[in-house]
Amino acid sequence: MHSFEYASPATLKEAFGLLGNSWSDAAVLAGGTDLITLMKEHLAEPKRVVNIKGIKELGGITKSGGGLRIGATATVDDLLSSALVRAGYPSLLAAARGIASPQLRHMGTVAGDLCQRPRCWYYRNGFGLLALKDGKSLVDGGQNEFHAIFPKGVAKFVSASSFGPALIALGAKVKIASSTGEREVAVAEFFKAPASETDREIDLHPNEIITAILVPAAKGAKNATYEVRNREGLDWPLATASVSLTMKGASVGSASIVLGHVGPTPVVAAAAAGTLTGKTITEATAEAAGKAAVAGATPLSDNGYKVHLAAVAVKRALLAAAGKA
Amino acid sequence: MPDYSYPPMENRRVIGKRITRLDGVEKAAGKAKYNSDVRPKGTIHAVGVFSPHAHARVKSVDTSAAEKAPGFAAVSVVAKPGAEVNWAGQEIAFIAADTEERARDAASLVKVEYEVLPHLVREENLAKAGVRGKPAGEQVTGDPDAAFSASGTVSHEAEYGIPVITHCCLEPHGQIVAWDGAANQIKYWPSTQTVSAVGGDLAKQLELPATNIHVHQDHIGGGFGSKFQSDVWGAEAARLSKKAGGKPVKLYLDRREELTIAGVRPSVFGKVKLAANASGELTAWDSTTWMTGGFAGGGLNADLLPYVFRNVANRRINHTAVSTNCGTSRAWRAPNHPQVCYITCAAMEDLAAKMKMDPVEFFLKNVDKTARADTYRGQILKASEMIGWKKNWKPRGSSPGTVKRGLGLAVGTWGGAGHASQCRATINPDGSAVVEIGSQDLGTGTRTIIVQVAAETYGLPMNAITLKLGDNMYPASGASGGSTTVGGVSASTRKATVNALDKLFAAAAPSLGVPADQLEAVDSKIQVKGNPAKSMTWKAACGKLGVSAIVETGANDPRNPMGLTTGGVGGCQMADVSVDIETGVVKLNKIVAVQDIGLVINPKTADSQVYGGIIMGICAALYEERVMDEMTGRFVNADMEFYKLAGAGDIGEIEVQFEITPDNDKRGVIGLGEPATVPTIAAIANAVANAIGVRPPVLPLSAKNVLNALHNTTRRFA
Which end of chain B is more exposed for a tag (fewer CB within 10 A), N or C? Predict the structure, then answer.
């Protein structure tokens, strides 16, 4: 880790003044559960670290327009203990419980979860975000059991986000601010597959700070997340599915299905979700939707099993959302 | 010759009791000082520069920029120009600076030029190994070909594999070391499994007299067989200290380095064919196995196949050691045994399934092919009862539903006789009693059992004994490896304390008016045997010593342990698992272990040894795998994120059963660390095969490997 300047601003305005126009100028620290590791491994070398935990307006999980406002410094523990979340968002709770480390839940923030860099072992071992060697992918012919089954171009890592799929399925937005103003981006658009080494996996600029995540009202919609992990102990999911259903009586009015840990961004399975409209959720319809969700998968040499896991995760998330698990 | 034998079981007051370990609270409260916590005044910090290439020749090493870095203290170059490096992570240079961060910054300024050479880092495909594979000669007993083709014979042929795994010590390898150049004396605080010998090992590297090195260690955070040497980093840390004017140097490997270069367990892959006659008696075994222990690492003893069931009449063994450009193997808790146990017991379970036999029945049918038929028969029956085999076992693949339950068994063996050990027992005129021994407590309870033995001998409470260990100023005691410590230190302690007590009896005898051999030590008193009325307090007896303390030694000689310790045990474990066949995720419900054992000094710490051994087996069965990447030559999961170990929620219930009987007690003390971990992997793997109806041939039993087996594909999932 290189030496760096540390700042702990009390206001957003102060914080904006401490950020720069390049990622090497400054990094935002909230939970620090990823940033510190990145700095130790020299994968991030910011000249300045800006701690935003002291900015009061960024904290808390509150009601907002019938839905939720998850402040940028709200931790995974805050989310788990929030009565608002517990009342209507089982998909977020399940994603939070999947982070099976009290330390990470205590320190890590929900917004920070969206900003985590990939866990791809080529990236973490210093072979670059896209793991290209002489223009060739190390992932293709290498050790890719945990990599993407929905790669996008040269990006073959998987998004590490635990909350991304659930937030997308719920139609959430990310609120972003900089010295020049505020903008809102749908979480579905926030994730991007990088096309080059210098691209980022998220729609965030070095001079910006996420201020909150806005989740629409659940309003009787049913939602669930199912993660497949090897271990009960702390472990990255092999595949995740988050679903959100609005119901018309016993049948599905509209559905949203989002897969996690299968591509460089969460993968929205719109066609699969469409097949559920007007149907009741049964073992058979859920299984068919799961299969439809992975129909376009293009697995690598050693991760075909993840195609199967993603389909099973969709089936189980749908059954859980429908109360039939 | 004094009588060193232990009192009869029924008369023991301390030995055989469930005593809580003496350093438990200290460790749980974070007060225990490990050597990686030691910070002598003026400590500076060193880090290494390691080869990023799996195979290369060093062209040049330029440390000039590093030497100008802020805080720089000293540099030592290990790989000189022309040197060949044979694995990624091999040591190039070490740099010391005033802080660890500045040492890392300085190390990043070392410029090394390499000529990159071709490498091989994966061994699972023997054909690709080419000349890197060194076959051992074929061994044949009987006539295997005739036995396989005999009429009425059922045979089974399959492939099995266990990947390389690492020791993954929580406290990495390393040391604090201070070399006072003027006095030529070294103070050495290593993380070691051998306090008495590691100083001599360092002395040899530095070409110094062993007596010039003082070793001290109170606690160690895991070794498992990987911490016997002083290592390159030990010698280099010492040299850096000398160059820096004798300042203490702290040099510990970081997590990635620890997993990559500080030792691994060899893999094993193999093709096995075995056969039984119609009644289920094994008639033939034929295996072709291969493995890697790294570049020049130790091999696997394939001669142990078939494991435990040694007396199969017809047998053919072929084995090849593959040299790979990977970190070298080191002893790993029960070297060889877990691997050959898996190969053997998995193949046996598969043959039983093919013959539609209950594997318990199949194993029982073949116990006469082992060296201890009665022991294994009894253990298999006992373990069956504990796990409810009759009620819960179903023929392979017949468990209903999506989450399928399965049971599996395996058996193991180990030696575990005590190592050479010396102990010094001092009884002071004020009544205080000191035991000194150059041993180490690996976290197994060594401190506790030594004090129990001394307290038993003296008839004193445990808190009346002061134990000193973890220092090479005390009488030399063996390395803690091979489950040899408990037998060694208990025997030497018993002998030293009996010798000392005899001297105390001699001093007290005149006052009590009987010959010394008529005395006994009970309840903090020295008394005439069986007559508490004719007694004096321990303290009063010690007062008879005048000004001279009693100082006596005792030694365990492994060639003549005098009945205090022996080796040679069997063990049986059974596993109960649930496997979700849609996700391939294996959940451990329960493991039972019936462990052969001798005299048990402390049933509580003995239980813990078995828990620890089983937990290591669970990790290896379900999660652990060193993933080598052929393109980069790197160990890509050298972290604790993708190098997976079980968490508390992954372990399930563990039930341990010892046979603590007068007959076993007569065998003396036998080590337990190794045997407890041997059968676990195979028992779990067999339970998984029983549950899902097919054999995932290669471990770990990850979702990937289980699903691939279920869908009959090894690479691309159908």
Answer: N
